[in-house]
Amino acid sequence: MSADLEQPAKEADVVFVIEATANLGAYIDALKTDYIVPTLEYFCGYAPSERSFATDVGCSDTLFALVAYSTANSAPEPASICIGPTSSAQKLLKWIDTLKFVGGGAENLGHVTEGLASALQIFDDFQQMHQSNDIGDEKKQKENRRKHCILICNSPPYQTPCIESPSYFGLSLDHIVSSMRERRISLSIITPRRMSFLFKLFEKAGGDLQSAMSKHYARDVRHLVLLKHYELQERPISPPSLNPPHAPIIQSAMNSTVSNLPQQHQQASQQQQQLQQHQQQQQQQQQQ
């Protein structure tokens, strides 16, 4: 792990909530390489590639779990499934590799609500497990463990309440993320495209949107990466020049570079405009 990154809490529970549909399947390899593996490295303190599956004894103070959710096309199968827990980063990656990113071809929505409700249920189970295993001061320390829910998706949610989780039956998506905020569960969001509902979801869960948007974690300008209470290595704001100093520039290459400048400025300004529009909407709602 880079020395520039903040050291993670010694004890943490981390639940990955992943949309297991064809809508995300085309991007999962890039998302895994660029964000999931570095996230595991952050919490474990070592890169999963440094240890084989057989020698990975796990992260001593971190527990991982996986929730995979789908679309209405998955019926009569459950809308979400839970796998875990484990302290092994290698095992978590293996679970992700076994997911079948199929279905949802005719759907542009996903069971985000069911997925996050299942994550809450896992945090309930984690808490009971920690309380039963510890006593005295150690028990108090376990209650103060950092809790992280990392949503990886590519589809907006159905506007229906949770129906599959007994503990959270009937709750809307807003109620579920509000519960995360109350329970001090840090919700982070990683997605290959920008969707307006994700900005609201991040704030509803207690995230600082302006601060998160100021970070340059995305490896692709189309990606949206909103992290709360953990961090990854930031990418350079501007890519290094491909031409050595004082090297002659061929006219056609120079024209290509100049023609790309407006696009680069536009991409940089789009992110700022989205944030400003979101803030204006909030101000209008408060005035009403």
Please provide a written account of the structure:
Residues 10-230 form the Mediator of RNA polymerase II transcription subunit 25 von Willebrand factor type A domain. It comes from Aceria tosichella. The protein is α/β, with parallel strands linked by helices and 288 residues long. It has a single domain, classed as 3-Layer(aba) Sandwich (Rossmann fold), CATH 3.40.50.410. The protein is built from 9 helices and 6 strands, in the order βααββαααβαβααβα. The chain has helices at 22-25, 28-44, 89-98, 112-133, 136-143, 173-182, 196-204, 209-213, 251-287, and strands spanning 12-19, 62-69, 80-86, 146-152, 185-191, 224-226. The protein has a 6-stranded mixed beta sheet, with helices on both faces. Helix 4 runs parallel beside helix 6. The longest helix is centred in the last third of the chain and has 37 residues, at 251-287. The radius of gyration is 21 Å and the shape is globular. The model is unreliable at 240-265 (pLDDT under 50).
